[in-house]
Protein backbone atom coordinates (compact mmCIF):
# COMPACT_ATOMS: atom_id res chain seq x y z
CA UNK A 1 0.00 0.00 0.00
CA UNK A 2 1.17 3.48 -0.81
CA UNK A 3 0.64 6.92 0.62
CA UNK A 4 -0.81 9.59 -1.66
CA UNK A 5 -0.90 13.32 -1.00
CA UNK A 6 -3.30 15.80 -2.60
CA UNK A 7 -2.91 19.54 -2.11
CA UNK A 8 -1.40 22.79 -3.27
CA UNK A 9 2.31 23.17 -3.95
CA UNK A 10 3.12 24.46 -0.49
CA UNK A 11 1.36 21.54 1.22
CA UNK A 12 2.86 18.76 -0.89
CA UNK A 13 6.48 20.00 -0.90
CA UNK A 14 7.46 18.37 2.39
CA UNK A 15 5.94 15.06 1.36
CA UNK A 16 7.78 15.22 -1.97
CA UNK A 17 11.06 15.86 -0.14
CA UNK A 18 10.32 12.90 2.14
CA UNK A 19 10.18 10.64 -0.90
CA UNK A 20 6.43 10.16 -1.31
CA UNK A 21 5.89 9.28 -4.96
CA UNK A 22 2.13 9.66 -5.39
CA UNK A 23 1.87 13.44 -5.15
CA UNK A 24 -1.01 15.34 -6.73
CA UNK A 25 -0.28 19.06 -6.76
CA UNK A 26 -3.64 20.70 -7.42
CA UNK A 27 -5.53 23.96 -7.46
CA UNK A 28 -9.10 24.44 -6.27
CA UNK A 29 -10.35 23.80 -9.82
CA UNK A 30 -8.97 20.26 -10.12
CA UNK A 31 -9.06 19.22 -6.45
CA UNK A 32 -12.18 17.08 -6.76
CA UNK A 33 -11.01 15.22 -9.86
CA UNK A 34 -7.60 14.49 -8.27
CA UNK A 35 -9.26 13.07 -5.13
CA UNK A 36 -11.55 10.88 -7.24
CA UNK A 37 -8.51 9.62 -9.16
CA UNK A 38 -6.72 8.69 -5.92
CA UNK A 39 -9.79 6.89 -4.58
CA UNK A 40 -9.83 4.67 -7.68
CA UNK A 41 -6.14 3.76 -7.37
CA UNK A 42 -5.95 0.28 -5.78
CA UNK A 43 -2.34 0.87 -4.65
CA UNK A 44 -3.25 3.81 -2.37
CA UNK A 45 -3.86 2.88 1.26
CA UNK A 46 -3.67 6.35 2.82
CA UNK A 47 -4.73 9.68 1.33
CA UNK A 48 -3.33 12.79 3.02
CA UNK A 49 -4.98 16.17 2.48
CA UNK A 50 -5.09 19.55 4.17
CA UNK A 51 -8.24 20.00 6.23
CA UNK A 52 -9.13 23.18 4.31
CA UNK A 53 -8.98 21.30 0.99
CA UNK A 54 -11.08 18.47 2.40
CA UNK A 55 -13.76 20.98 3.41
CA UNK A 56 -13.83 22.39 -0.16
CA UNK A 57 -15.01 19.03 -1.54
CA UNK A 58 -18.72 18.42 -2.18
CA UNK A 59 -20.58 16.99 0.81
CA UNK A 60 -21.31 13.62 -0.86
CA UNK A 61 -17.60 13.10 -1.61
CA UNK A 62 -16.64 14.12 1.95
CA UNK A 63 -19.14 11.59 3.31
CA UNK A 64 -17.67 8.87 1.08
CA UNK A 65 -14.15 9.72 2.24
CA UNK A 66 -15.17 9.79 5.91
CA UNK A 67 -16.60 6.28 5.59
CA UNK A 68 -13.71 4.96 3.53
CA UNK A 69 -11.41 2.40 5.08
CA UNK A 70 -9.23 1.99 2.02
CA UNK A 71 -7.91 4.45 1.32
CA UNK A 72 -7.96 5.86 4.81
CA UNK A 73 -8.14 9.64 4.58
CA UNK A 74 -6.04 11.69 6.97
CA UNK A 75 -6.46 15.46 7.05
CA UNK A 76 -3.74 17.70 8.44
CA UNK A 77 -3.87 21.34 9.45
CA UNK A 78 -6.86 23.24 10.69
CA UNK A 79 -8.49 22.54 14.04
CA UNK A 80 -9.27 19.16 15.55
CA UNK A 81 -6.71 17.23 13.57
CA UNK A 82 -5.59 14.98 16.42
CA UNK A 83 -9.12 13.70 17.10
CA UNK A 84 -9.62 13.16 13.36
CA UNK A 85 -6.38 11.20 13.12
CA UNK A 86 -7.39 9.19 16.19
CA UNK A 87 -10.73 8.29 14.61
CA UNK A 88 -9.10 7.34 11.30
CA UNK A 89 -6.58 5.05 13.00
CA UNK A 90 -9.37 3.49 15.05
CA UNK A 91 -11.43 2.99 11.89
CA UNK A 92 -8.58 1.47 9.90
CA UNK A 93 -7.10 -0.89 12.52
CA UNK A 94 -10.20 -1.43 14.67
CA UNK A 95 -8.50 -0.44 17.92
CA UNK A 96 -8.25 2.87 19.77
CA UNK A 97 -4.47 3.16 20.19
CA UNK A 98 -4.80 6.05 22.65
CA UNK A 99 -6.43 3.84 25.33
Structural description of this entry:
By secondary structure, the protein is of the alpha/beta class. The chain is built from 5 helices and 4 strands; from the N terminus they run E-H-E-H-E-H-H-E-H. It has a 4-stranded parallel β-sheet with strand order 2-1-3-4, with helices on both faces. The protein starts with a strand and ends in a 6-residue tail after the last helix. 18% of the residues are buried.
Outline the fold blueprint.
Layout: E1 2-7, H1 9-17, E2 22-25, H2 31-40, E3 44-50, H3 51-56, H4 59-67, E4 72-76, H5 81-93
Parallel strand pairs: 1-2, 1-3, 3-4
The average pLDDT score comes to 85
Helix count equals 5
Task: Name the strands of the widest sheet in spatial order.
Answer: 2-1-3-4
Helix content: 40-55%
Number of strands: 4
The separation of the N and C termini measures 26 Å
What is the N-to-C succession of helices and strands?
EHEHEHHEH
**Cα-based radius of gyration, to the nearest Å:** 13 Å
Helix/strand/pairing category: alpha/beta
Please mark out the parts with pLDDT under 50 across 5 or more consecutive residues, or reply none: none
Q: What sort of overall outline do the alpha carbons produce when their principal axes are compared?
A: globular
Strand content: 15-25%
Report the major sheet: 4 strands, parallel
Question: TL;DR?
Answer:
This protein is an alpha/beta fold and 99 residues long.
Please tag this protein with its features.
single chain; 99 residues; alpha/beta; 4-stranded parallel sheet; 5 helices; 4 strands; globular
